[in-house]
Amino acid sequence: MKLFLFTLLLISGITDSRSDQFAVVGSADSVFAFAGEDVLLPCSVKPNISVVDMKVEWFRLDQEYSVVHLYEDHVDRNTEQIQSYKGRTELNHQQLQTGNASLRLSAVKVSDEGRYKCFIQSKSGSDDATIDFKVEAVGNPPVITVDGFDRSGGLHLLCESEGWHPEPDLEWLDNKGVRLSSETTETQRNTDGFSVKHTVTVHQRDGKIHCRVKMKHHMLEALISSTSNMYLYRRTSVIVISVSVVLIVIAGILIAVAVYKYREHRRLQHENSRMKSEHRRLQHENSRMKSVINHLRKLMAVNVTLDADSAHRDLIVSEDGKQVKWGHTHNRKVKDQTVWNLGVARESAEWKSSISLSPENGFWTVSKRYEKYNASSDPLSLSMNPQRVGVFVDYKKGLVSFHDVKSMFHIYSYTGQFFIGKLYPFVCLWSLNSTPLIICDVTNEESE
User: Fold this and answer.
1) Sheet holding 67-72: strands in order across?
2) What span, in angstroms and rounded, lies between the C-alpha atoms of 116 and 24?
3) What is the arithmetic mean of pLDDT over 357-362?
4) What is the DSSP letter of 96?
5) The model's pTM
6) Percent of the chain, pLDDT > 70?
7) Sequence-ordered list of residues with C-beta below 8 angstroms from that of 85, at least 6 positions apart, any chain
8) What is the DSSP string of 271-312?
9) How far apart are CA 68 and CA 380, in angstroms?
10) Which end of the chain is more exposed for a tag (fewer CB within 10 A), N or C?
11) Helix/strand/coil for 423
12) Listed residue (33, 221, 29, 37) closest to 136, CA to CA
């Protein structure tokens, strides 16, 4: 009987030990993205067990100071994060419940390319996976410059382009598509990518010369037309030496001005195109956010009242619990001055004047200080002065969002938060102005 019981305990212990085992899986192939895009670096555990209670760390293998993102004790801890990754990394806390610890990296840079490690550690074991990340960047259109003549009458041309990654190929082609040999080549690399310069000397009259810069998936091209007049000018300048000096100076100035105008025109075109694209994206995002917020605020609106018993002694709360104002007045006041904080707070949060109103301390708020707006310690740049602020909370998704009720303009959102316990409305008035802060119901907002 004793032997039988010992055997059962031994088998049970072996089974429990194996149930804690897991393997971290990344990607067998390299992950590719273009500069400026968002990318998801894959990482998960097999079997698909929850990693909410585990430590998840992403870091670079090719850098000494390498922390990219750290999740531990149910919160993101990025105080030691590489500076260039600040505000660009995110773990989906809901996906952690199914063993998915993939890292979202936004606004990809050329400097982000490298080898990453996803490390996951439980109380009884750990494992990791390595992900190879490649970045591609399409550079500026090539520019051809006339760089003078050689002794035999050949026309010197210079072609240059910058901002490519990985290193591109540059080639010269004549009007028949035949490749021309470059005489000099120059390649430089910086944090924004590669810049290339190639020169060639041509002797053909009345033809087109192409400069082509290409990578695996992209190609940009420029061309210049060579005319007999260019070479006629060269012969004349040799015969009439005194006149040639003046002509060369004038030609050089005209060419320099033309090249500068061309480059500036192309730069402005590129910048204008980028700004239009960004404007369309923001308009679409703003429209989508307005629609979602308008639907949710009607569907999930709750009746909020202020608790006079928990208010500061200098605050006066109305009988219906919908208004609060500063209780003291002074002879010297700043006209229409408004200084406030509003949002939600954790039930267990302790309010002291020395405590920062941040998610780490249990406060998710926006504030106004002398016409300047902030979310926690982050400054906000608003194009309007909100008179009514809507607060939307999705407890399960870890979302607290603020918007202007009248225009539906999105002010700020806290995303990927981890809530513990109850959340309560939070209002803090610092202004000497006696004008009350009023809580409005959704029905009242729509009628007004």
Assistant:
1) 31-34, 126-136, 114-121, 55-60, 67-72, 75-76
2) 13
3) 92
4) G
5) 0.44
6) 76
7) 68, 69, 105
8) HHHHHHHHHHHHHHHHHHHHHHHHHHHHHS-------GGGS-
9) 25
10) N
11) strand
12) 33
Q: Per mean pLDDT, which range of 100-109, 123-132, 144-153, 303-312 is the poorest?
A: 303-312
How many other β-carbons are positioned within 10 Å of the β-carbon of residue 61? Answer: 12
Q: What is the mean pLDDT of the chain?
A: 80
Tokens of residue 109, six digits: 């840079």
pLDDT band for position 356 (50/70/90)?
confident
- Report in angstroms the alpha-carbon separations of 67 from 57, 77, 116: 8, 10, 10
d(CA 345, CA 419): 10
Per-residue b or e along 187-214, where b marks 16 or more CB atoms closer than 10 Å to that residue's CB: eeeeebbbbbbbbbbbeeeeeebbbbbe
Angle formed at CA 131 by CA 281 and CA 191, multiple of 5 degrees: 60
What pairs with residue 47 in β-bridges?
Answer: none
In this structure, what token pair is assigned to residue 437? 């802060």
Average pLDDT score over residue span 76-103: 94
**Burial class of residue 91, CB neighbours in 10 A (0-12, 13-18, 19+):** buried
Residues 46 and 22: beta-carbon distance below 8 Å: yes
Give the rounded distance of the alpha carbon of 45 from its chain centre. 27
Q: How many CB atoms lie within 10 A of CB 230?
A: 16
Give residue-wise pLDDT tens across range 218-264: 888 888 876 655 544 444 444 433 444 455 667 677 787 777 888 88
What pLDDT does residue 330 have? 37
Query: How many CB atoms are closer than 10 A to CB 294?
Result: 14
Please state the three-class secondary structure of 198-232 as a single string. EEEEECCCCEEEEEEEECCCCEEEEEEEECHHHHH
pLDDT at 446 > cutoff 60? no
What's CA 178's distance to the chain center, in Å?
43
CA 342, distance to chain mean position in Å, is 27
**R_g of the chain computed on alpha carbons:** 32
pLDDT of residue 242: 40
Token couple for 298: 């009607």
**Encoded tokens for 99:** 């063993």
